[in-house]
Amino acid sequence: MATVQRPSSTGAAAGRQVTRVPFPVVDEVARHCTDPAEPNTVHIEIHLPGRVAPDRLREAFAHALRRHPRALMRERAHGPFAHRYEWELTDHPDTEVVSFLPCAPGALARARAGALAVAPPLTASPPLRLEVVEEPGTAGCVLLFTVHHTALDGPSCLRIAATAAELLSGRPAPAVPSPVRPVAAPERRATRAPGLARPARVAPGRPGPVPGNAMLVTELPVPRRESGAPYTVNDQLMAATALTVADWNREHGAPERPLRITMPVDDRSRGPGMPIGNGTRLVEVGFTAAEVAAGTDTAALLRVTAERTRALKARPRPQLGRGASLLTAPVLPVGARAATTRALRRLASPWTSTTLLSNIGRVPYPLDFGEAGRASAVWFSAPARMPRGLTVTTASTGGRLHLVLRWSRALLGDDDGLRLCEVFARRLAATDAEAL
To answer: Can you identify the CATH homologous superfamily of domain 4-169?
Structure first.
C-alpha cells in the first residue's frame, strides 16, 4: 500500500512529518455510500466472568493501539478537487477510546443500541470506541466495541482486543496459524450456482417507524458433523441461512427466486503482525430456487454448498471485484466518483445479494484479561443496510455458537427478528449429524 510522508496540517506541531495512506478500494466505496440513517458500524462484545480495573485496561488498550499503528488513523480533510481520500496516521489517539458506563439495569441493551445508531467519527483517531458495561447483580462485565466499518473490520478489532488481553494478563497468546484454503475441485455441471439471475430479496415484515438497524443476540449449539464430512460448520451455517430466507419468503408469499448470499473470506494471518483495516474479500454463494424449495434434502444441499464455498475460497479475486477497482481509480475528483458510485449502487440494487453471512468461526485467541478472566462469549454483527436489510453473523467460543441477526428497521420489525431466529435455529439443527 502506498504511503507518503508530508508535513501535518491537522493536530500536529508545525513541520512534523506524518504518514498519509490513500483509501484502499473497500474504504473508498464505503465512504462514498455513507448513509446517516444506517450507520456503517461493526459491533463486537466480549463477555468476561470478572471485572477489569479501569486504569489497567486503558493502559493495556493504549499500548495495543501502538502495537497496531494502522488502527491509529483519521480521515484527512480534503478539498473539492481532491482525487483521493487519505488516512492520516497518528502517534496517539485523538480522544479517550475506553469509557466505563454507569452500572445500571439495561446498560447492555442501551450500549448495543448505541453501537448500531452512532458511528465513531472518521475525523478522530482511532475510528472505534470501547465501552465497558456492568449491570447490578452480575459478577462480570462486557467489553463492547463499536467500529466504523469504513476504516476497520471485525477481525481487525478482535486482533487489537487480543493484544490488549495479552498485555493485561502478562501471558502471550499461543501462535495462531494462518487460514489454509483448500484446493478447489472442479464444480460438477449439475451443481452450478445460478448465474446473473436477479436474486430474491428478503420479504418485508412489519417495519417500525424508527430508522436504522436493530439486532437479536442469542446462543445456539454448534452443529455436529460426522467424521470426514465433506462440509464445514461454515457450510452448515450457509445452508441454514439460505433455507431460513427461503422459508421466510414462502411464509410471506414472495415469489420463488434464486438466492445469493455474500460471504466474507479472510486470508490474513491472525498473529501479532495481522494487517489491520478492511482485509476480507467478498464472494457470493448462489442457490437455485429448486435447491432451497420446501422439502429440500438437507444432506444434498450441504454437499452442494461445500463444493461452491470451497471453489470460491480458493479462487483469487479482488476484495470487491474488478469493477470496484475501476470505479475508484483516481481519474476524477472524489466528489464526482462518489456521485457515480451512489448512482450505480442504486441502479444495481435489484442484483445485490439477498443477505450476508459472516462467520468468524472459532475465536482464535484465548482473550485472557487477567483478573477479569477469559472470554466466555464473543458476539459481533455486521451492518444491515438496504437493499439487503439482513445480516447473519456468528462466532464460536467454548463449543457454543454466538449468533447475531441484524436487520434494517426499514425492512423488518422486532417480532420479525424473533421469527427469523426461530426458523434459523430449526434449520441449523436440521444440519446436525444426528438429524441427517
So the answer is: Chloramphenicol acetyltransferase-like domain (3.30.559.10)
